[in-house]
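Why show two proteins at once? Because comparison is the fastest way to build intuition. When a single record is shown, students tend to memorize it. When two are placed side by side, the eye starts asking what differs. So, the first record is below.
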Amino acid sequence: MIELALIGIGTGSPGHLTREAIAAMADADLILIPSKGGDKADLAELRRALCRQVLASPPPLAVFDMPARDVSEGYRQGVEAWHDAIAARWEQVIRAHGAIRPALLVWGDPSLYDSTLRIAERVARRLPLNLRVIPGITAIQALCAAHAMPLNAVAAPVLITTGRRIRDHGWPDGVDRLVVMLDGECSFQSLDAQGLHIWWGAFLGMPQQILIAGPLPEVAGRILATRARARAEHGWIMDIYLLDRCRSR
């Protein structure tokens, strides 16, 4: 039986690794490192650097190319086919190395807007697999800590959603505070900005961390320009933001 560990590593800072995460990394006999190549090569290097920094004797690291998603298909159909291809790649790497305790380092936490658990379910159909999940610090926690703010207003709900949902459906009913993830298009531009306050952060917990907060009409342009410059400089960007339309509470 293969013991696959999915290890939450926070937003890239070694300080985000829990003791449980470090112990699971040390126990692995192989750590899989996905690579998107090109401008995003730094993401694979960040995972390698974490292993070097926290492990006295890192296990073998297997860097593999991530399959590309076919954007010509419908969104859900394309994602399903993409996940199938990634699962096949995982299986190939695990078999090639004869790994019994492989591990994957997952940005943030494997349970929150991440597909690693769904892909692992596919791998379990191909290999005799036990799955272990080690939770990690989420980008939401890192954002609130960086801005020194609570996630929720007093006794009020918070909705965690995506840029796609905001762009396609507008502000959801019944909530005054949103956390928006997976938004490569800054979908807050599709909302009526009047009365909205935003807390935005990129590269949270890392040396290149960037924070901007304020009334959305006043800071939206600065966020757009800052994000574009940072992405051009690094070749990639991970960002997240919180929106509130009842700032006075």
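Second record. Ask yourself what differs from the first in the token line.
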Amino acid sequence: MDSGIGLLAAAAAVRRLRPDADLVLSSDPDGMPWGPRTPEDLTERAVAVAEAAAAHRPDALIVACNTASVHALPTVRARLEPGIPVIGTVPAIKPAAAGGGPVAIWATPATTGSPYQRGLIDDFANGVDVTEVPCPGLADAVQYADEAAIDETIAAAAALTPRDVRAVVLGCTHYELVAERIRAAVQQPGRPPLVLHGSAGAVAAQALRRADAAVGASAVSPGLIVLLSGREEQLPLAALTYAEGRMLAETSPAL
């Protein structure tokens, strides 16, 4: 679940790890973006999206949204666990810091500077220099595959990123869909290759570990259910702009 198509990165990671897994993708295009909403409003919408997914009786639920993980994860867990394990998405600050600094964290304005993110930095940065970079508008631009807006918002965030950073933490799941464009904008000539740290792979692996029922091999093509603000529909056309969306469509022939 996510506010929008940022969930594609985690869904594609699950599909790569378990090609036979059925997937339910539940998002909230009617309520996007979640970031500017109050924590109470955001939590209400996140719970609705989670419950729409839970109605399909999944073995685990990934909250593939950093903002929702910051504000709504305890409430979602209280509603669904222990029946359905709920896995949140945490910015990959610890592995980024382990590689040495300086490190930049690109995140939505709602997450940047939040006590939650500051707590992660205090707990896991281990003295490495960390710059929090707000990226207003980038998630929306990715959601609607607005190429000009993606370029503009990435350029604005890159201008706020110290030139000597060694790693960038992608603190919003939408950003993972444009990771290589972020790399190209931040990489400085003559500097070591920039390392990008997303969360999709680790979150997918954790979800599969916590799933109660192992997904068995099947000759049947894996299913893909898409829920848009609770309505069962097709993948949005914007999703097919990204490699992750195309991969999901190609491996779910019913689409």
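One difference worth noting in the second protein: The chain has a mean pLDDT of 92.
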